[in-house]
Amino acid sequence: MKKDLNWYLKWIATVILIAGTAINSLGYYPEGPITLAVGGLIWLIVSIRWREASLIVTNGVMLLTGLAGLAYKYLVV
To answer: I want to staple 59 with a disulfide (CB 3.0 to 4.6 A). Which of 12, 22, 38, 43 is the partner?
Structure first.
């Protein structure tokens, strides 16, 4: 079975999201949200390539929420 780019991207993103969740749970900031944003971005790319609206919304919101939280922490407060 030949694996395409989407297959590799989705698994890389999944591993990154699992690591980001662990980093977040240990209280490392901003490493946790940054890691989660990176995983969300990669999954967003896969979602767009698949043209899957529910995944685009989920991962787009996750990415924007993570970036907004970081921006608020470092640019506003």
So the answer is: 43
* pLDDT at residue 2 in the model: 85
Cβ count within 10 A of residue 13: 21
Q: Rounded to an integer, what distance in angstroms lies between the CA atom of residue 62 and that of residue 44?
A: 9
Q: How many domains does the chain have?
A: 1
pLDDT of residue 45: 97
32 in Cβ contact with 10 (< 8 Å): no
Q: Is the dihedral of CA 19, 22, 39, 71 positive or negative?
A: negative
Task: Give me the count of residues in the chain.
Answer: 77
User: What is the pTM assigned to this prediction?
Assistant: 0.90
Instruction: Please report the pLDDT score of residue 7 as a whole number.
Output: 96
